[in-house]
Amino acid sequence: MGWRALLLEAVVALVVIVAFLGLALSIRINPLLRVGQVSGLASLQLRFMLIALPLLIVVIVAARLREGRYFELAVRITCAALAGLVSAFVAGGVIVALRHTPYCLNAHNGDTGLIALWANAFSKHDVAGYPPPFYPPAFPHILAWYKDLSDQPALYALKDLQIAITALVGPATYLCWRRLLRPLWALAIGGLSILVLVEPYKPYEGLVLVMLVPVLIQLAEALRSAEDRTIQDLAKAGVGYGIVLGALCLLYSGWFKWSAPGFIVATACLVPWRGGRWRAWAVLAGVALIVFVAMLWGYLGAIHHYTQVTGTSSLGGGKPMILDDYVYFDVLVDPAYFALWKGDLPGTVGAWPPPGELGGLGVYALLIFAGFGAAIAFGRKRTPVIVVAAIIGGTWLLRFWYAHHLYDTHLVQLYPRTSIELAYAFVVMTGLGVYFAAEKLVRDRPASYSIGALASLVLIFGTAGSAIADRYMPANERSLGLLGWNAQDAFTKNVPPDPP
User: Fold this and answer.
1) Which residue from 53, 28, 247 is spatially nearest to 136, judged by alpha carbons?
2) Cα distance between residue 359 and residue 254, in whole Å
3) Is the dihedral of CA 486, 478, 199, 410 positive or negative?
4) 7: Cβ–Cβ under 8 A, 6 or more apart, which residues?
5) Which of 245, 296, 259, 246 minimizes the C-alpha distance to 134?
6) How many Cβ atoms sit within 10 Å of the Cβ of residue 379?
7) How high does pLDDT run on average in the chain?
8) 426 near 199, Cβ under 8 Å?
9) Tell me, what's the pLDDT at 23?
10) Angstrom distances, CA of residue 409 to CA of 91, 279, 324, 334, 397
């Protein structure tokens, strides 16, 4: 995949994001009233269609021209634009929910309050206020830099970052998958998979996960075919992968913990071992590992110092470094259930997990399990299937490993967060199953297939984006709407944006 093509698609996605968010800023409603929220969501839908429908018309017109390159270009541009729109819709919903307040979602409460304190400490070089050594330091540093640059309190600056990063999740996912797939498939697999985890509250966490999986697939494929490349090319690729993975880990390291066992097993199965063929992939892996460790050296050093002082362990065994004893509702449900993620602000849970029709399994769970089987059936020897299946297996086993210790230790150790990774990975596997099945069973690719797929994706992205945005509309109850309500309430009560 040439860098010029990726650059063009990246620019298109960014232009669409800026245009949509600019249009979202013009919505004039009161987000504290339900009629205002409904009006705001409808206004976002109209703005979404104002951009999406002309793109579909361009694709249809291009399909009628005899020159195939015009159609391919139209599809590429439309896919890139829709990748921007799918997450920009949710970011636009945050703009509507936080209208009239400069505060970020949740204001001083919960994690955002802590992150703001850490950012202030970084700005003042107050070592005593720095985050715990095991917390990835990149985002508090980014917030500190941005708040100083924009001359805003941290909780005001965090609002801008919540909107901006949420909007970038779609294009980032699409561009990572474009290194592996054609535009329409990159949009379908990447765009649909982010719908299960896009979270404006702390959007950098989801951003890391949706980028990490396709990047790990690319690295595994590069290791598998390393003997076909020169030493210089392998070294350059190793530097690139080390930098990207290091930056993602510094932004949020949790997904690396859950993904590492499966990825190691997958690469061990994929790389050639016989006849000295291991030397080429060893160069790539070695350079990538060296650069990765160099990127994390300060972070790892701080963790090592912390474990020495506290007598804890970061590698298991003995006293754990992180003592997570937060037993909320999701900790006490069936640990085999992961299909839907409600976060830790569930409101009235009711029957949870939702009742299923077949042995407790609902239709959605049956579909993603069938998709998993289809991916194995049609692409069991393909690198993406092997890597994602191994990541699912490793995450699944770690989930139950921590859950089975719950009774003895009363420590959760963040295991419910594996639900997010499993839900995302199963949607990816379902998409790969459809992709490899179509590759084997569909011999021709008429333009009508692409037009129909794009039309379906427009409807899915528009309605799903509205549903996700609706969850963040201010509501004074234990739900995601409480995050928007706290932001509005803090401004109404003139709460100072920074602690005294």
Assistant:
1) 247
2) 32
3) positive
4) none
5) 296
6) 21
7) 90
8) no
9) 97
10) 40, 44, 10, 18, 18
Judged against a pLDDT cut of 80, whether residue 311 lies above it is answered with no
- How do the domains of the chain map onto residue ranges? 1-195+446-500, 221-322, 330-441
Strand partners for 361 = 358
Query: Contact, 186 vs 5, CB < 8 A?
Result: no
| Distance between CA atoms of residues 79 and 52, nearest Å | 10
Torsion of CA 487, 490, 492, 495, to 10 degrees: -150
CA 104 to the chain's CA centroid:
20
Q: Computed from CA positions of residues 383, 385, 389, 391, in that sequence, does the dihedral angle turn out positive or negative?
A: positive
Q: What is the pLDDT of residues 72-129, one digit of tens each?
A: 899 999 999 999 999 999 999 999 999 999 999 999 998 999 999 999 999 999 998 8
CB 190 within 8 A of CB 184: no
Among the listed residues 373, 367, 374, 365, the one whose alpha carbon sits nearest the alpha carbon of residue 434: 374
pLDDT of residue 272: 82
Q: How confident is the model at residue 414 (pLDDT cuts 50, 70, 90)?
A: confident
Whole-angstrom distance, CA of residue 218 vs CA of residue 207: 17
Q: What is the pLDDT of residue 32?
A: 95
Say which amino acid occupies 185.
Answer: W
The rounded distance, in Å, linking the Cα atoms of 17 and 269 is 40
Q: Is pLDDT of 338 > 90? A: no
Residue type present at position 116: A
Which are the contacts of 313, defined by CB distance < 8 A and separation ≥ 6?
Answer: 307, 319, 320, 321
**How large is the C-alpha radius of gyration of the chain?**
23
Greatest CA separation for the chain: 72
Phi, psi of 364 (to 5 degrees): -60, -45
> What pLDDT was estimated at residue 67?
61
209 pLDDT higher than 90: yes
Contact 105, 159 (CB under 8 A): yes
Q: How confident is the model at residue 448 (pLDDT cuts 50, 70, 90)?
A: confident
Query: What's the CA gap between 192 and 174, in Å, rounded?
Result: 10
**Encoded tokens for 198:** 């896009």
Structural contact between residues 106 and 486, judged by C-beta atoms closer than 8 angstroms: yes
- Beta-carbon contacts of 73 under 8 Å, excluding residues fewer than 6 positions away, are 62
Question: Which residues lie below 8 Å from residue 242, measured CB to CB, with a gap of 6+?
Answer: 287, 288, 289, 290, 291, 292, 294, 295
Q: Which residue is associated with the tokens 């799903």?
A: 464
Q: Would you place residue 5 in the very low, low, confident or very high pLDDT band (cuts 50, 70, 90)?
A: confident
The reported pTM is 0.94
Dist CA 473 CA 88 (whole Å): 16
